């Protein structure tokens, strides 16, 4: 068995339950990570720590130990008045926001309706049970840095199923677009005037 906090290199192929391959080390290279540190999804972490170097194993990982259950609270409704280039939002596709630590936070544009956009911040694989073929290729020295691979795959960390911190995520997005709090306040005042909520 592999100890906690051990650095490892692992070859892998990830499948959906219907057999569709969604990620593989053949395309992205083996993943390198430190066990028991939350650097990979929990199901992979647990499986690797029960294996030996050179061992191959197929593991089935329930959604709660992969990218979390699908959470309706991670769907956010946003006023289009505050969204730059709102007319260009790609319905059905993903756009990136910026999270508190500067990381990309993808969201799927579900629909645009009655002046609002509906954004889904759940992970693409949230709610899905997964299957992985794993091989522990070797143990690594402690100072070896992990290799970044697809954020769609196993190195994307265990999903946090709590609701997204929506104001922080969204305001960081506005900041990146060069929109200041004053711009937001001005747009809000104009909207309220149009709606007759304040006098001209």
Would you give an account of this structure?
This protein is α+β, with helices and mostly antiparallel strands. 18% of the residues lie in helices and 30% in strands. It is built from four helices and nine strands, in the order ββαβαββββββαα. It has helices spanning 25-28, 42-49, 166-176, 181-194, and strands at 7-16, 21-24, 31-34, 56-61, 75-79, 94-98, 104-113, 116-120, 130-140. The strands form two sheets. Strands 1, 2, 3, 4 and 9 form a five-stranded antiparallel β-sheet that branches. A hairpin with a 5-residue loop joins β6 (94-98) and β7. It is elongated. Residues 144-152 and 157-179 have low confidence and may be disordered.
Number of strands: 9
Shape: elongated
The structure class reads alpha+beta
Residues in helices, as a percent range: 10-25%
Strand content: 25-35%
Order of helices and strands: EEHEHEEEEEEHH
């Amino acid at each position: 068995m592999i100890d906690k906090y051990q650095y490892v290199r692992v070859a892998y192929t990830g499948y959906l339950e219907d057999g569709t391959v969604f990620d593989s080390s053949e395309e992205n290279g083996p993943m390198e990570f430190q066990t028991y540190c939350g650097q990979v999804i929990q199901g992979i972490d647990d499986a690797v720590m029960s294996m030996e170097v050179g061992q191959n194993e197929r593991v089935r990982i329930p959604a709660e130990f992969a990218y979390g259950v699908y959470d309706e609270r991670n769907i956010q409704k946003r006023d289009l008045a505050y969204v730059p280039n709102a007319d260009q939002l790609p319905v059905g596709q993903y756009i990136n926001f910026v999270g508190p630590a500067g990381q990309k936070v993808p969201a799927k544009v579900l629909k645009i309706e009655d002046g609002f956009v509906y954004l889904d911040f759940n992970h693409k694989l949230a709610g899905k049970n997964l299957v992985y073929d794993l091989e522990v290729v070797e143990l690594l020295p402690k100072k070896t840095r992990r290799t970044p691979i697809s954020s769609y795959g196993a190195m994307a960390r265990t999903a946090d199923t709590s609701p997204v911190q929506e104001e922080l995520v969204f305001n960081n997005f506005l900041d990146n677009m060069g929109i200041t709090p004053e711009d937001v306040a001005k747009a809000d005042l104009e909207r309220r005037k149009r709606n007759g909520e304040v006098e001209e």
